[in-house]
């Protein structure tokens, strides 16, 4: 089954409201949807969602990268996913969102060819995944209100964005814990917003609000600082922006700089390298979460399938669809009901697009 064509189109994803983090505000959500055709007649859909301040990709740069990769991939065997990744990496460094789009479309084809839903193609036995809900940065009072709304919608895991102001961060966590009660799991994501000293102080003070773990406390450029934070606090520390690839995962684990990893398909370059990361983490005894960018149902469906397939991916931060309006040309049965995804038994990723 050979690749005969790779097309890409930009789709405008409307946000319900902007999401503010310590490294940038997301207010528009253009995404690139890729369609791969094969000589068997099976087509696959993938997605590259640009997050310029994390991956360095824009919708236009993703399209250019896909055009560049296309000429190297036409004629390759669709089932040879490892060889396709090697070819992509040989001819183009970085550009992980474009590679993720191609990788997801190839997995859609492989799962359709096998007659299996993607989560079962990846080895999963049930398609049930629970996600958290992210609370963007606002006033501490507004953040506590948003957290209560999330709990009312059925979320038991809340991820709180911090990193702009240490005192506001601590007040927000205090108000949220008081508002949601003791049973809700609170995770914190500082998106690199703290210095090492601030991180150590903030995390030690957050212990009293029963925070589960803290994501990316310090800059991606300060790996020694990340290790210093990890060694100085008792809460687990998760790498996000510091950990794009299997190489990053191996290096951070060998350096003993982290306790957990946040895998995202747009950082890793798709499911194949994401599975490598989960495997490296698993043998090192490091649990993973899987997160997302502002992705449509295609990227989210692929990430949910991976979460369903890998026991070491213990947490899902796959709430992107909750922040976006449904696109009229993208149809899928995927979408959390409250905090829960139940994947369908349709073969492939189960998403259809008027392309
Ligand atoms: Mg994060």
Can you characterise this structure?
There is one protein chain. The protein has 355 residues and is α/β, with parallel strands linked by helices. It folds into two domains: 3-115, Enolase-like, N-terminal domain (Enolase-like, domain 1); 121-353, Enolase-like C-terminal domain (TIM Barrel), CATH 3.20.20.120. The protein is 39% helix and 23% strand. It has twelve helices and 17 strands. It has helices spanning 59-73, 81-91, 96-114, 118-121, 140-152, 166-180, 196-206, 223-232, 246-254, 265-268, 271-283, 297-309, and strands at 3-13, 19-21, 24-26, 29-38, 43-48, 128-130, 133-135, 157-161, 185-189, 211-215, 237-239, 260-264, 288-291, 313-317, 330-332, 340-342, 351-353. The strands form five sheets. An eight-stranded parallel β-sheet has the order 7-8-9-10-11-12-13-14. A three-stranded antiparallel β-sheet has the order 1-4-5. α7 (196-206) links the parallel β9 (185-189) and β10 (211-215). The protein is globular, with a radius of gyration of 19 Å. The two termini are 22 Å apart. The mean pLDDT is 96. The chain binds magnesium ion. Magnesium ion binds at residues 189, 191, 215-216, 240, 262.
């Amino acid at each position: 089954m050979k690749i005969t064509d790779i097309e890409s189109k930009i789709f405008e994803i409307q946000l319900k409201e902007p999401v503010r983090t310590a490294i940038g505000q997301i207010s528009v959500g253009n995404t690139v949807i890729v369609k791969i055709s094969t000589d068997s007649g099976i087509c696959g859909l993938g997605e590259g969602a640009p997050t310029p301040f994390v991956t360095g990709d824009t919708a236009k740069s993703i399209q250019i990268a896909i055009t560049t990769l296309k000429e190297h991939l036409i004629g390759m065997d669709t089932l040879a996913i490892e060889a396709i990744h090697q070819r992509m990496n040989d001819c183009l460094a970085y550009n992980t969102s474009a590679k993720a789009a191609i990788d997801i479309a190839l997995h859609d084809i492989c799962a359709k060819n096998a007659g299996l839903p993607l989560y079962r193609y990846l080895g999963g036995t049930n398609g049930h995944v629970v996600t958290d809900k992210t609370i963007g940065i606002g006033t501490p009072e507004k953040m506590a209100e948003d957290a209560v709304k999330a709990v009312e919608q059925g979320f038991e895991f809340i991820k709180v964005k911090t990193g702009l102001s240490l005192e506001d961060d601590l007040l927000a966590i205090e108000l949220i814990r008081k508002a949601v009660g003791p049973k809700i799991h609170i995770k914190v994501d500082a998106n690199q917003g703290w210095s090492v000293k601030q991180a150590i102080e903030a995390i030690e003070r957050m212990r009293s609000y029963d925070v589960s773990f803290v994501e990316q406390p310090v800059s991606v450029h300060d790996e020694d600082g990340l290790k210093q934070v990890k060694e100085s606090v008792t809460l687990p520390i998760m790498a996000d922006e510091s950990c794009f690839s299997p190489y990053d995962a191996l290096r951070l684990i060998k350096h003993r700089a982290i306790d957990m990893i946040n895998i995202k398909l747009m950082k890793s370059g798709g499911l194949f390298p994401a599975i490598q990361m989960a495997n490296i983490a698993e043998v090192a005894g490091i649990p993973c979460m899987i997160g997302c960018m502002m992705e449509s149902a295609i990227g989210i469906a692929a990430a949910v399938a991976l979460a369903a397939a890998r026991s070491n991916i213990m947490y899902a931060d796959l709430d992107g669809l909750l922040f976006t309006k449904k696109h009229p040309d993208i149809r899928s049965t995927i979408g959390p009901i409250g905090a829960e995804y139940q994947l369908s038994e349709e073969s492939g990723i189960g998403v259809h697009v008027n392309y």
